[in-house]
Design brief:
Shape: globular
Distance between the termini: 27 Å
CATH class: Mainly Beta
CATH topology: Jelly Rolls
Oligomer: single chain
Strand content: 15-25%
Number of domains: 1
Largest sheet: 7 strands, antiparallel
Number of helices: 6
Strand order of the largest sheet: 1-8-5-10-4-3-2
CATH architecture: Sandwich
Number of strands: 10
Structural class: alpha+beta
Length: about 280
């Protein structure tokens, strides 16, 4: 039996949602413990949920006892029946709280969908160029351990910092600019992406880092109900950029990718991201 995939994502692979519409205290993400993990540029991650409840970003398949159904373990402070990973994670969260980190709003945001949660983390991305973003475009490895018949795992991107001049870049084909959609990222922006299908990266303009909450959700009735409550739009106009700049950036990115392939002897873009 194939995985269940949501019809709203069938045509374009993404849906832009209403803003989550609240003012977030940046201390919620600035006081977290980050690990140096490179994905789509100069990045660090603050894991909130991981395979074994540790502050690390590895895929679940690296664990000695991977949790095949880890997508089902929703983190709740008042939950009595906790998986081992959740127990270890809550211990880590308590340690972070003791160091001044508050995760209440972040966890609330992640749980609003009411769907099963897998990995959940805050990403910190340093400023980059359009060519950098194109060079680092990638697919995610979301469903390696997901049994057939379960809901397809997709990712939700909830923008924390206010970066209206930065853009999520989505492509159906990494080598075809005509398949690209650029979506602005002001604070509160939310989008669901089938990130195992859609090539994606972020072009972050500015001086300070960008912060975003990334949550893996299992497709199903709960997630669909939440999506429809937020007026999903699965085709938006791409933010316009200078055509000459776009063409030059495309050439630079393709040249750098070709050099990377020659150096490694294989194309690293064929390897899906664990982050």
């Amino acid at each position: 039996m194939p995985h269940y995939k949501m019809p709203i994502l069938e045509q374009t692979g993404y849906a832009v949602l209403d803003s989550y519409g609240r003012v977030m205290d940046q201390a919620e993400w600035m006081t977290l413990e980050y690990v140096d993990w490179k994905s789509s540029g100069d990045t660090r991650f603050a894991p909130i949920a991981s395979a074994q409840g540790e502050i690390e970003c590895n895929g679940f398949w690296h664990a000695d006892n991977p949790l095949v159904f880890a997508q089902r373990h929703v983190i709740e402070y008042d939950q009595v029946q906790l998986a081992p990973a959740d127990k270890a994670l809550l211990k880590k969260l308590d340690e972070q709280a003791a160091n001044g980190a508050s995760l209440d709003q972040l966890i609330e945001l992640a749980q609003e969908a009411g769907a099963n949660i897998g990995r959940c983390r805050v990403i910190e991305l340093q400023p980059n160029s359009y060519a950098d973003a194109l060079y680092n475009s990638h697919l995610d490895d979301n469903n390696r351990l997901n049994p057939e018949g379960e809901g397809w795992v997709v990712r939700c991107f909830m923008q924390l910092s206010d970066n209206p001049d930065s853009y999520m870049i989505l492509r159906e084909d990494i080598n075809d600019p005509s398949t690209e959609t650029r979506i602005a990222l002001p604070a509160g922006a939310q989008l669901i992406v089938d990130s195992e299908r859609m090539w994606h990266s972020v072009w972050h303009q500015g001086v300070d880092p960008r912060y975003c909450l990334i949550t893996s959700y299992e497709s199903g009735p709960e997630l669909e109900k939440w999506l429809w409550e937020l007026n999903p739009v699965n085709r938006v106009d791409s933010v316009a950029i200078d055509a000459d700049y776009a063409a030059a950036s495309e050439i630079e990115a393709q040249t750098r990718r070709s050099g990377r392939t020659e150096y490694y002897g294989y194309d690293p873009t064929d390897v899906r991201s664990e982050a």
